Amino acid sequence: MAPQVTVDSINPKVIECQYAVRGEIVILAQKLQQEIQAKPEAYPFQEILYCNIGNPQSLGQKSITFFREVLALCDHPAILAKSETQALFSADSIERARKILDQIPGRATGAYSHSQGIKGLRDTIAAAIEARDGFPADPNDIFMTDGASPAVHMMMQLLIRSEKDGILCPIPQYPLYSASIALHGGTLVPYYLDEATGWGLEVSELKKQLQEAKSNGITVRALVVINPGNPTGQVLAEENQKAIVEFCKEEGLVLLADEVYQENVYVPEKKFHSFKKVARSMGYSEKDIHLVSFQSVSKGYYGECGKRGGYMEVTGFGADVREHIYKLASVNLCSNITGQILASLVMSPPKVGDKSYESYIAERDGILSSLARRAKTLEDAFNKLEGITCNKAEGAMYLFPRINLPKKAIKAAEEVKTAPDLFYCRRLLNETGIVFVPGSGFGQVPGTWHFRCTILPQEEKIPAIVTRLTDFHKRFMDEFRE
Amino acid sequence: MAPQVTVDSINPKVIECQYAVRGEIVILAQKLQQEIQAKPEAYPFQEILYCNIGNPQSLGQKSITFFREVLALCDHPAILAKSETQALFSADSIERARKILDQIPGRATGAYSHSQGIKGLRDTIAAAIEARDGFPADPNDIFMTDGASPAVHMMMQLLIRSEKDGILCPIPQYPLYSASIALHGGTLVPYYLDEATGWGLEVSELKKQLQEAKSNGITVRALVVINPGNPTGQVLAEENQKAIVEFCKEEGLVLLADEVYQENVYVPEKKFHSFKKVARSMGYSEKDIHLVSFQSVSKGYYGECGKRGGYMEVTGFGADVREHIYKLASVNLCSNITGQILASLVMSPPKVGDKSYESYIAERDGILSSLARRAKTLEDAFNKLEGITCNKAEGAMYLFPRINLPKKAIKAAEEVKTAPDLFYCRRLLNETGIVFVPGSGFGQVPGTWHFRCTILPQEEKIPAIVTRLTDFHKRFMDEFRE
């Protein structure tokens, strides 16, 4: 018999799932890159400028030295006692590596750990959360994961029973959420962020969408909030967060707080507050609200995407539900130990007085201030373009400008059966090598068009991006202006 | 409103999923360990002897020096050019680290990679598969994953549409398979390994179970084979593998080959053959059979469980199906880079002439020969116990002895509403500190009882395990003998 697996016979949930961040435009970009390598004169540009994904080190961002020192020493502890090591590594990285190794049962960095992660590292993380929020954190609430994505999948797997279960998600959203909900067979209940108020999150909109979902027979189980926002870059005001907590409490919803950009705030008037801190400051305890916070080593100033470290802090569930979350974690045994160690480091970096403190702060602030400058430059550049408006880049790693496409461009896109924003992004890529992700990959108010642009290209490349984009945009508008 | 998530309202597939390797007995063991730490005289033993899980480094197995040198250098490439590094690291580890870094775009070990894994590392793995099998391997067929578990989940997610889709699984089986099938809502179609013939895999049994499943309205989509076997430790004969390939071809089934123990063969008369090699040697190409092979850095002589490296080699699917597998991989962005590097290293270790070759071989063979001795000692010890028969430990890391429990013991177990094998294992743990996993966690012919015991405790501890087990078993049988 011929092999039986065809596209018509695979899981339709897999087919339905979409993930634009690595989708069509990116595949085209990789193809162009190969063509340029083979034939440098093939296109009017010599390199692909990836602005599609929050992957800082792929664009030249350096890793934080102290973190990498500790990882190397934990990978090869045999060198800890050698005199040459003192010349190669900072004294506090040696000390920290010893401390971490002491926290690992048998000092075995090659062993599966507890399925929630190494207890000593979870202690460190819980202490850091306490210090950040001013409220207690319990290491037994921490589940360490290979980046934040598996943690999100785990919660979706726990909560979604059928297509009658809904998850309230922001639109625009990071497509991990729509992908995970599709894979687990649930229903994405959209709520629209308000572009006019800087992508504000209105509780009235949440209520309206919840009611509508209910009237369609959907049981809404959870609310996803991404703060700072992806792809929108907004940072929620504390008052707004309080209203969201109140809404979740009133409606009995799990609050799934994507807080992976907690270190990425670029404007002095905004500050990151964890939802747990906000809920506890309102007097709400574990008994009042189910709250899950996701964190990752991939973002922040560290940007260690390839290490796949992260955790979720799970509060408010009963011991019996918790056991099932633990079981889900245990089926995959544990997350990678290097990522676990790194997660403890980003939550507990060098402190005043540590040998590496000054160099660490210089590296950290160098990255964050450069990101802030790049965000501002790009934001200003977008706002100078005809028909483009771009909200303030308050945080995260993205801008999500809106583009008023001429009717003629929309028609041209329709003729080639392409969404207008994809049409724009594809033209931009083919003519300039710049890679944006079309807004349709994140969701947008119907009839509006956007794209996501990261602020991550190296600072010295930003002027060229602005010039190329500006020139392209002018040509594009000239071509399609009515 | 009170929080709404209770055990009655979570996904029933999560509740149904079981994972005995980290289940009740292990939770009890962790509790006892804490009690002993607090009060050393609490039990008649001073330490817990974990024989429950294939986690070699947690029991003192050392990592392979060359592998860890390369990982450390890739984690902190800044030291590569320093003179002290030459004193601390072997020359070929420095050379290999440089080569790997050159294969990573931008030398960025902190960046997300291609969702299938770094291309250069996949080239290395494909070349190693070719050298192992004598048949071509394509780097584009390799999907690197965080250990083998996510790869197994990915294939189950792809293949299972509903409870009407079945996966043929060996009984006994590694409970990842039953857990993953349960989580994805499919049906496990069991086929029984024949204990009487050393856990042989009879194609007649496959045919019988396939027919029975079909008559129950189940569409069987794939066959799982674990070779070398977990928990049974058997190594399939090549003729047997040919018959299995023929069966999958005839029935149009995907062959999911769990080959993570490919380096763990302990008897001279048996040899590991990959299913791909067997299929190709029969003249079957990609067009004839869908074949997926799983490999992991967690097993073999390397035992790097905590690093979560692995890959699957996917052959025989159309380009359109492949795109959906790629999409699933891309939703999680990529597997961890440290694990990716390690997967390339275990498939391409030092070669004759390399500086580390001799010490590498000494480390490798030291571990493998010790594992073979431990397996034999435990096998012999089990076979000396009243009512216990244990098949030959040919490969993998486990023994799966059968125990003929006295009726009185079965009755005593029933009285406390416990499966008889769990009853035995719990008593064993409470009286000796030895942790076995009850056979019911893996599946067994109804009415037979087994337990799984790893061969991994340090060699010097094996005599004490044998003595404690023998004494306990005698007491247990004396207590319950009719």
UniProtKB/TrEMBL annotation, chains A, B:
Co-factor(s): pyridoxal 5'-phosphate
Q: Which InterPro entries has this protein been placed in? A: ALAT1/2-like (IPR045088), Aminotransferase_I/II_large (IPR004839), PyrdxlP-dep_Trfase (IPR015424), PyrdxlP-dep_Trfase_major (IPR015421), PyrdxlP-dep_Trfase_small (IPR015422)
Q: Does the keyword Membrane apply?
A: no
From its record, what is one biological process in GO terms?
A: L-alanine catabolic process
One Pfam family hit: Aminotran_1_2
> What are the record keywords, sorted?
Aminotransferase, Pyridoxal phosphate, Transferase
Part of which pathway? Photosynthesis; C4 acid pathway; Amino-acid degradation; L-alanine degradation via transaminase pathway; pyruvate from L-alanine: step 1/1
Q: What is this protein called?
A: alanine transaminase
Q: Which organism is it from?
A: Gossypium darwinii (Darwin's cotton)
